[in-house]
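Box S1 | Example of a co-folding query
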Amino acid sequence: MNRAPNNLVPLNRASSPGMGMKGSQAAQRSPKDRILHMEGIQKVYGTSVAVENTSLELFAGEILTLLGPSGCGKTTTLRLAIGLERATKGRIWFKDRLVDAPEDRVFVAPDKRDMGMVFQSYAIWPHMDVFGNVAYPLRVRRRKADEIRREVEKALDLVGLAGFENRPGTKLSGGQMQRVAVARGLVFGPDLLLMDEPFSNLDAKLRDQMRSELKLLQRRLGISVLFVTHDQSEALALSDRIAVMQSGRIEQSGDPKELYFYPQTPAVRDFLGRTLNFDGRIVARAHGNLTTVELAGGMICDVAGADHTNSSAIHSRCVASIRPEHVKVTPRGNDPLHATGYLAGDILTLLFIGDRYEASIRLSTGMVVTVFLPCDENWEEGQAVKLMLPSERLQLWKSEGAQ
Ligand SMILES: Nc1ncnc2c1ncn2[C@@H]1O[C@H](COP(=O)(O)OP(=O)(O)O)[C@@H](O)[C@H]1O
Ligand SMILES: [Mg+2]
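Box S1 (continued) | Returned holo structure for magnesium ion
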């Protein structure tokens, strides 16, 4: 697992059941199952560094997702993998073969790498029909006409477009173009399919459908996928493993639950799902593995699983973070605004989002937080509430800038 520099490591690991990579899965991964291996990759355009010191491994039969905000280097990493760009530094292996190593003067052209690619724009050629588009990678590889016809039919069938061979490229809906692009990526039976934000141009419903279809197709074919998205829920839903990128680097990689529950850097914590971050001070190193923290507003809470090797001094500032779904909210009635047992606040807005309310709550400190409330209970805007933060769900971080 890639880790960020030590000063950003959280102070504890919030415990949650069933987390981390399954032992059997970890044991199955060996270098010989490696489909793609990038080591120490740097890509510089003029004076700007698009990718910096990036290493990743992708194993047979898995979906690995590069997740990060726009401009963090995801597309560049894919283009380097397939050979549409040459690395400035580092080495890339595809299966056992070194395919890019500027220091060793090695570079293997994209059509010799046997990777399929689905571009963000789909890149469907308008002057060709569906057959021509899907057949293209086979023609480049000089396959025979009868094989081309057979393989194109098979690929179109896989993506649910059987019978669309003669439809012009210009007469396709967004979803159909997307399917043609997947068929073209798969048609020559590559060991690795690269997908660059393939669903970002689709409407929400179709996007959900395509995600499930992709996962089913990937499981059925046993193909490996390097997927790129800026959408964290897409990454969580689709991936066997996720690598979170930020400013050209991989901040952390791991399975989705590991990243969600054990983020190692503030960027990963805040990018994957929502987090509530409360400023506080460490007031005691308690019994067992508990650390006692006083949050702004006066609440005292024990944080479980504190890592003492990483511990900060008593009185030092810290940040206690928690996922909104783990905050317990109850009506406050006439209980006081300042207390050590809870954070007090009032409901500012209440949004009914189907299966629950999304409530923004103004705390006594003035901070506004968003939490979820069950919709089978009666809540109203303006209502006085208290927030409780279960110890085992809190994660403790060094305050940025703190010693
Ligand atoms: N051909 C290029 N020439 C110059 N700069 C580029 C080029 N391609 C990408 N970049 C820059 O590299 C950085 C990463 O871009 P990109 O890989 O496209 O990010 P992402 O796909 O995560 O949005 C950005 O700052 C972008 O402007
Ligand atoms: Mg991109």
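The pocket of magnesium ion (ligand 2) is lined by residues 74-75 (CB under 6 Å). Residues 6-271 form a domain with the Rossmann fold fold (CATH 3.40.50.300).
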